[in-house]
Amino acid sequence: MDYKSAWEDFINRDILSNILPSEIRNSWRRLKERGFDPFSRRDYMVPITELSAKKEDNKELISAFLSSIRRQKGLILQSEMKFILFDKDGVVLSVVGDVDIGIPIHCGAYWKEDTVGTTSVSLTLIDGVPHTVIGYQHYHVDFLNTWDASCPVYDENGKLVAVVSAFSKVDGFDVYKLGWLYSLAKSVENGIQFVLASKRLTVSEKYQRAIIEGISDGLILFDDKGNVLTMNSKAGEILKVSPQEAVGKFVADIVDFIPVVLDVFETKKGYVDKEFIVKSKRGLLHFIKTAVPVKDENDNLIAVVDIFREISRVQDLVTHFIGARAIFTFDDIVGDNKFVKEIRRFIKIAAHSDVPVLLSGPRGVGKEIIAQAIHNASHRSDGPFVTVNCGAMPRGLIEQDLFGAAADYNREGRPGKLELANGGTLFLDNIVALPLDLQERLFYTLQKKQILRVGSIDSIPIDIRVIASTDVDLKKEMEKGSFNVDLFYYLSVLSICIPPLRKRKEDIPLIVDRLFERIETATGRKYRLSPEVKELFLRYNWPGNIRELETVIERAVLLAEGEEITLKEMPSYIISEGYDSTDNGSDTVIPLREMEIALIKKALEATDGNIYRASKLLGIQRSTLYSKMKKYKIVQYTT
C-alpha cells in the first residue's frame, strides 16, 4: 500500500494504515476527532496591528533569517523551494522564494494543526523536533502535491522561538535539499542567539554603567598598565576631567598632580579608606581613597579599582553621625527680663554676620543654648555645629582633638574638631581652660583660616565661625597673662554677657513652663507647681542657674505622685536655703510653723523615717525631734 491509498482509506473509510509514520497517524487521528475538513480550507490571519507588533518583537529573528538567506542566495534560487519563517505561535513572519508551489502563503497566517492540518510546521510546533511531510502524508487536499520540511530554532536557554520551513512541489523532493534547510535553520539559530547575547551584554553594560554612575564616590577602573578603562561622572567632577576623554589615557596624563594610585601598580597592594592630601595647581586636594587590586589566578595584576571621595563629604557624614547639629533656636531663649531682651538683640546681630562671638556668664546659664541659637539663625545653619570642651581633656588630647593628627608610619591621620566644623560653627566651651600655647596656635589658625595638623607640614583651608564661652572675666585673665591677648581681642568682637538666674527671677515661671512643655512632649503628662513651690523658687538664689533648675524639675517629675509638684518633691537644701535667703526679691514671709513642718518631713523622707539620722540631718537632738513631731502631729514618716 502507498501513502495515497492510506490517505484515501482514512478519509473515506476511517482506516488508519501502519505504513504511516507514528507522528502522521497521531496527527490525522487528532484532526479526525476535531472534525477538521480535509476538503475545505481558508487562511486564518492575525489582525494587521497584531502582525506589526509580532514583527517588531521578532525583528532580530527576522533579520537573522533574511541574513542567512542572503548568504545562500545562489543555492536557494536553484532549489525551486520557498522558505518561510514562523514565530513560536505558528504565525508567518517572512516568506522568501518566487517559486509557485500551488499553495498561497501569506505573512500573518496561522499555520497550526487546527488551521492547516498535518504539515511539518504543525508537527514541529507540537514536539519541537525537525519533521518532513511528503505528498499524501498531508491531511488537507491543498498540500497533497507538495513536500515540506521544518526545523526548530531555539534561543541559548533552550526555548523554542521560531520554526524555519522549506516548501516545494512533491516531484521536486530531494533529500539533499534537506541539508540546506538544516543549515539555514542552524544559521538562523546562531544568528538569533548572537543577537540575544549581544542584547544581554548591552543591557548588562547598561546595568554596570548605572551602578557605576549611581555611586556617590568617584570611581576609576584602570588596566594593568594604569590606563583608564572607565570613569564615572563623579570622578570626572572631582578631578575636573571629562570621563569620556580620559578613557584610554594613562592616569598621570589626566591630572595635574602625581597620582597616589601609582603605588598600587608597583606594590600590588591596595588600601581601604586611606587619607591623602596632594598638591595640585588648584591647591591642596584632600581625599579619602580605597584602591582594590584585581589579580588573575597566577597573582598577576590585571586591573585596579580606584574609589575616592572628597574630605568635605566625609566630614559631613562624620558630623551627621556624631550628632554635630544645633537643636536650640531663637525661640528657646525664654524670658521678658531686660537682660534677655538685650541678649535676643545681640543674637540677631550675630546671626547676620560671621564675626566671632564671646559668651560670658556663670556656669549653667545656658551659654550653649545661645550659641546654638546663633548658629541656627545664621546662613551656616545647614552646616555642622561642633562643640569642644576645652577643660574636659588633658593637654595632649585636647591638641589632637582640636587640630587633628597627621598620618605617619604607625597610624592613620585623623581630622580634628576644627576640620569637622568646616562650613559650620565651632563652639569653644570654657575657652579659658585651653593651655596658653594652644591659645596662640588657635589664634593664628583662625586668623589665617588654615589648619596645620599635629605632625603635619601641609596646611588645610577651613571655613568656620567661632563662638567661645567663659565663666570668668577673660579681660582680667588677659591682664594677668594667663590668656592670650590676640585671641582675646579676636574672640571679643561681639560679646554677650548672660546674667545669673538670681538676677532675673521673674523669668523663672516662664522657664519652668517651657520645661514642662518639653516633658509633656516626651511623656504625654502635664505638670504644674504648687503655690508653695512657686514661692520657694522665687526665694531660692539658684547658684547652679538654669541647669540646676532643670535638674530640680526633672527630679520632682520622677518623684511626683500626681500632676502637681509640691514641697515634698523638693530637695531639703533648697527648702532650707530658700526659706533662709534674705536676697529673695520678695516681701512674702513663710510662717515658721510651715517651714519647720516641711523641713522635718524632708529629713524623715531622706532618712527613710530613721529618727536618729533625721535629727542629725536637722542638727537637733533626737528628743527635740520627737517633741516637734508630736507638736505638729507628724506620724512616723516613711516614703
Characterise the protein shown here.
The structure is a single chain. The strands form five sheets. Strands 2-1-5-4-3 form a five-stranded antiparallel beta sheet, with helices on both faces. The protein is an alpha/beta fold and 639 residues long. The longest helix is centred in the N-terminal third of the chain and has 38 residues, at 177-214. It is elongated and about 135 Å long. The chain has 26 helices and 19 strands.
Concise synopsis of the structure shown:
The chain has 639 residues and is of the alpha/beta class.
Radius of gyration: 46 Å
| Spans where pLDDT lies below 50 across 5 or more residues | 582-589
Please give the share of residues in helix. Answer: 40-55%
Number of strands: 19
Q: Look at the structure and give the mean pLDDT.
A: 83
- Tell me the fraction of residues in β-strands, as a range: 15-25%
How are strands sequenced across the largest beta sheet? 2-1-5-4-3
Supply the helix-strand structural class.
Answer: alpha/beta
* Gap between N and C termini: 117 Å
